[in-house]
Amino acid sequence: MKDSKKERMGEKEALALAREVSEIVVAKGKKTVRVDMKKDAPSDADLLKLLLGPSGNLRAPTVRKGKTLLVGFDPDAYTKVLRP
Questions:
Q1: Could you read off the pLDDT of 35-82 as tens digits, one per residue?
Q2: What is the pTM of this model?
Q3: Beta strand 68-71 with 23-28: parallel, antiparallel or unpaired?
Q4: Count of CB atoms within 10 A of residue 14's CB?
Q5: Which residue, 79, 52, 51, 76, is CA-closest to 65?
Q6: Distance between CA atoms of 53 and 36, rounded to whole angstroms?
Q7: From residue 17, how far is each of 6, 31, 76, 83, 84 by CA, in Å?
Q8: Are 64 and 2 in contact (CB under 8 A)?
């Protein structure tokens, strides 16, 4: 597990992380976006819009569980993905 305050992840690292997973769930405000990286992988530019915050670093919180990457916080998404 990495602490994003100590180890920042910029564009290159965020894209590499995104390319390792099958699904990305991004919470932005009240909207949740699901991206199927196997069937509908977006362009690097579109991925970066979802993954990076205003600082240019990977948005927090970001959690990877298996082949799923959760970006931002949505209680329902966390419950579905992290529930055993």
A1: 999 998 999 999 999 999 999 999 989 999 999 999 999 999 999 988
A2: 0.88
A3: parallel
A4: 23
A5: 79
A6: 21
A7: 17, 22, 23, 22, 23
A8: no
